[in-house]
TrEMBL record, chains A, B:
Protein name according to UniProt: GntR family transcriptional regulator
UniProt keyword terms in alphabetical order: DNA-binding, Transcription, Transcription regulation
The HTH gntR-type domain, residue ranges: 4-71
Keyword DNA-binding included in the entry's annotation: yes
DNA sequence: GCCCGCTGGATTTTATACAATTTCAACACC
DNA sequence: GGTGTTGAAATTGTATAAAATCCAGCGGGC
């Protein structure tokens, strides 16, 4: 997964650190510091920041520097609302065309997911969740929507990571629902799978909103590692 | 609308030229040429290209240069499908909250639109259409979806511009539908406005698909000025 | 005849150096 | 005491130049 260009690899690393929380929401990203940290010049760093801004993870204020995109309940709600609109539609298109190989990969991802769950490796959870969702929509032949959903999943992971630091039960529920969705798709019950997917996203949204609501100081909790 | 940074203004200019068709789909965008053309260095050009890639107007192949994103019927269909999914939802949220000032601006845009129609100034059409649509969704409080729809509208303009070079009747129909949508919103008939908007987008999609289908060689017609 | 590796040229990518802009704190002034 | 201004420091934005990469064409080998 290594990028052929330094800017690309720096961008991947910064993205990972933002999703990790190592670069907290709202924090300044100084080009010079990042450049020396990665042992490169500032220009690849600049390009990486531009790319990340396009993904919505970074905000660039002209002549005032780059900051990690802030977290807000409204933004999380909108991201999940868009996911709820787009993902079931993609699944309904993709599910009938999923191949045996796709299901094999889905099973592997579910296994990794369960292993990460046992090990308490919440760090791996986000990527696995994204991979599984995108895999299920891969046969929809909607590349633009797929890329968009990928970006939305990445951003939702930022919020979910906050939530997971206090509540692990959601992960097991997500695991059960993922397995059931895959099972329904495999057996050809497309509409049932889509309905469950809708419930899945709605529930994630509701749980996340409840979490964000009770921890009223979002900016404070955004600093969690 | 002038950007504070050279990269921003260069990006705006390149975007305009891509939408104009002055940079045809698939054509190479050489950094050196653009830099000398704009009287700047290559670095602002690079940053502008990165930003445009994020908008989907440019594709960057590492170490192989940047090309204008190709036009394909499948891509147009997906863009319009997404618009058909997102825009009615946005309108239903925004329409009840539109202010008198919003309607005044909408009327002004409709006037400009009609003037451009009389003058045969198809060049201005795209921006006016985008402005009107975005204005109608402005009160939805969905910034992410709004930005996404703006990007989709820009891309749809690339296709519509091809179509308009041979068929002007669609513009008048669009004008009538726009006026009716605004009238319905103003009178509080939100669901009717949303239904009409859905039809509006569906019809644009159908007309565009028919046009793209009959001019089988899309790559050829993509070279139209 | 066909495939493979190599070299020349062009283009992108990155590094270094410089200029423009913003920010913040000290300070005079109202 | 509050407010506007002004300077320097820090940071970003841009230009110039060097390094890495890729592609096309060509010659040699099988």
């Amino acid at each position: 997964m290594k990028n052929r260009t330094i800017a690309g690899s720096i961008g991947s690393e910064i993205r990972r650190r933002i999703l990790d929380g190592r670069y907290p929401a709202g924090s300044q990203l100084r080009q010079d510091g990042l450049a020396t940290e990665f042992g490169a010049s500032r220009i690849p760093v600049r390009e990486a920041l531009f790319q990340l801004e396009a993904e919505g993870l970074v905000r660039i204020h002209p002549h005032r520097g780059a900051t990690v995109a802030p977290l807000s309940p409204a933004d999380a709600a909108e991201a999940l609302e868009l996911r709820g609109t787009l993902e079931p539609r993609l699944l309904s298109l993709s599910a009938p065309r999923l191949t045996a190989e796709d299901f094999a990969r889905a099973d592997a991802l579910l296994e990794d997911y369960a292993a990460a769950l046992r090990d308490g490796a919440t760090a791996r959870w986000g990527a696995l969740n994204t991979d599984l969702h995108l895999l299920l929509y891969g046969q929809a032949e909607r590349p633009r929507a797929l890329a968009l959903v990928g970006s939305l999943l990445a951003e939702c992971d930022r919020y979910t990571r906050l939530q997971l630091s206090t509540d692990n039960a959601e992960l097991e529920r997500a695991d059960r629902e993922h397995r059931e969705i895959v099972r329904l798709c495999r057996n050809g019950h497309v509409s049932a799978a889509c309905a469950l997917l809708t419930d899945h996203i709605d529930h994630v949204a509701a749980a996340l909103m409840a979490f964000l609501g009770e921890t009223s100081g979002l900016t404070k909790s955004a600093g969690i590692v």
